[in-house]
Amino acid sequence: MRETAIARSSPSLVIFDCDGVLVDSEIIASRIFAECLGEAGIALTVDEAMRFGVGKSAVTLALAVEQGFGRALPAGFIEDMRARVIDAFTYDLKPVDGVAALLSALKLSRCVASNSHIDRVRHALATTGLLPQFDPHIYTAAMVARGKPAPDLFLYAAAQHGLAPEQCLVIEDSLSGVAAARAAEIPVVGFVGASHCAPGHAEAMLQAGCMQVFVRMDELAGFLDAPLEPPHSIDSGRRGE
């Protein structure tokens, strides 16, 4: 097990990513993304769409498509995809296993900082019953000049609570989010227990700069001093071995 570099004192604010940390949404969103791309003449499997799109804001996703496929997204693509994702969430979305218990036990202040659109984030949290745990402290990339992997969103979240970066802790599932936390000089740990996390993702998160990576919410709860049962933190590759 790698030793954590976090200060012995608890953070004053825990900043949660939404997709893949609070709600198990990435496979649903990637399926819709692949369908929308197919209709636009770009053929990707759901797995390919997931690798391509996870962790991106609307701006960075559009730019990535243009750079990767040599064409701009058609007018209205993002808006149509967003509406279809929200509709799918209504019927299919589930919270990440164990997150509701973690949030109920957590004594620390918390907020959400997501690259996704505010309507999608609020709908996801409301659909899964998690909204009361965060409202009104929900921040998205539209509130800052640059979304993740730039540091702006995490710095904005810290500032809304009157805190310095080192007083916060970020929980992320994506390499883009880890890069943003590192750029903001905020300690970051990874969660790789959602259904979209592929073998080897834990090691990649550690290499990107996570202090520790967790597969289960009870492990993360123990790290946050909100234990649900005796926690077991992992080292670099248990999920991917």
Taking the sheet with the most strands, its summary is: 6 strands, parallel
Low-pLDDT sequence parts = 1-8, 231-241
Q: Strand order within the widest sheet?
A: 3-2-1-4-5-6
In what range is the share of β-strand residues?
5-15%
CATH secondary-structure class of the largest domain: Alpha Beta
CATH-scheme architecture of the largest domain:
3-Layer(aba) Sandwich
CATH superfamily of the largest domain: HAD superfamily/HAD-like
Can you write the helix and strand succession as a string? EHHHHHEHEHEHEHEH
Feature tags:
disordered C terminus; DNA polymerase, domain 1; 10 helices; disordered N terminus; alpha/beta; Rossmann fold; 41% helix; 241 residues; six-stranded parallel sheet
Describe this structure in words.
- The chain has ten helices and six strands.
- The protein has 241 residues and is α/β, with parallel strands linked by helices.
- The protein has two domains: 142 residues, HAD superfamily/HAD-like (Rossmann fold, 3-Layer(aba) Sandwich); 67 residues, Orthogonal Bundle (DNA polymerase, domain 1).
- The protein has a six-stranded parallel sheet, with helices on both faces.
- Strand 4, helix 8 and strand 5 form a beta-alpha-beta unit.
- The radius of gyration is 17 Å and the shape is globular.
Secondary structure topology:
Blueprint: E1 13-16, H1 26-39, H2 46-53, H3 58-69, H4 77-92, H5 99-105, E2 109-114, H6 118-127, E3 138-140, H7 152-160, E4 168-172, H8 175-183, E5 188-191, H9 201-208, E6 213-214, H10 217-223
Parallel strand pairs: 1-2, 1-4, 2-3, 4-5, 5-6
